[in-house]
Amino acid sequence: MSKPNLARRVAEAAEVALTTRKYVTFIDVVTGLRWLHSRHVDLWRQGRAATLAELAAVDEERLRTTAVLLRDWARAKGLKPVETPYVAGTRDRRELRFISGPEQEPFRVHWLSPDLGEARVRRLTEAQSKAPDLVAVAPLDAWTCASCGDTGPYLIMEDDRTHCLTCADLDHLVFLPSGHAALSRRAKQESGLSAVVVRYNRRRKVYQRVGVLVEEAALAAAEERCLADEEVRQRRRERDRERREQQDVDFQARMAAEIGRLFPGCPEERAREIAGHAAQRGSGRVGRTAAAKALDEHAITLAVIASIRHLDTDYDRLLMAGVPRMEARDRIKDAIDRKLTEFRG
Fold first, then answer.
1. Cα dist. 65→7, 60, 62, 79, 142 in Å?
2. How far lies 133's CA from each of 55, 83, 90, 136, in Å?
3. Is the dihedral of CA 12, 17, 19, 22 positive or negative?
4. Rounded to the nearest 5°, which phi and psi values hold at 75?
5. What's residue 129's pLDDT?
6. Which of 49, 228, 288, 300 gives the lowest tally of CB atoms within 10 Å of its CB?
7. Any idea what DSSP says for residue 222?
8. pLDDT tens digits for 114-143?
């Protein structure tokens, strides 16, 4: 890839992150370029890789170039640089490394929009400088502790080796499963020592939070606090639900309008159906990605293609007949291209 092409792609990935969150990081860009998957970033943050570059699909020189291109783009946009510490979710809280060389600073910079107010900048800075949660992994496969040779339901990383909770001095903590946000949050607040528990989802290829380890007395105190204000929190949840529903309606309307702009030959009702399906909350579809929320043209086009694939071709019938997925996609490619041409008017 030529440097001008790379600069363009870096700018596109950065623009999506800036539109979505009002700030941009190096990790936003490399994940947007698909050189790293979120699961790789999770492994790195858990302290299970010496450098982020070990997990990337490109070499360290390409990562250095990307950091420079991001810096140049951000300066041209007038973004504010804030160097942010990156610390592993391990007991030693060691500094995370992006590449093997000594020059780590260019990768740590977060570029903040000048539109952010002082209060928001202060909150972001405080959140980014805060040490991350300790992370315990609920493993899917058999494992043994590097210290005692025993095993257990959870492991934690120390010195790039797996350790059981007993050897990590965490065996006095109790497990609180996910599902009650207020209880989990308050239990962590009450607990002097805690760890987030994650498990790898092989289907989605990401680590997902499944609960938290907290002190037993902290859990009891948190339960009492939750019982005392249950009614107030219920009313707040109802208001939040209504607000999210309205946000979804507004977002789907904007996506449908963008589909109409990019594909003027697409019927208005079809555009609304595509937006409603792709942007459904919790679906994991392309419409819920950061790029789609920024109304990125590529993401919108992918949503339209997905609709065409299932509604205007034989794709589903081919899958039911046992045709491999990629072969089925090759067979319907011409039909999709014809429909896209029709939609483009």
1. 9, 9, 5, 19, 40
2. 22, 20, 8, 9
3. negative
4. -65, -40
5. 66
6. 228
7. H
8. 888 888 878 877 776 677 788 899 999 999
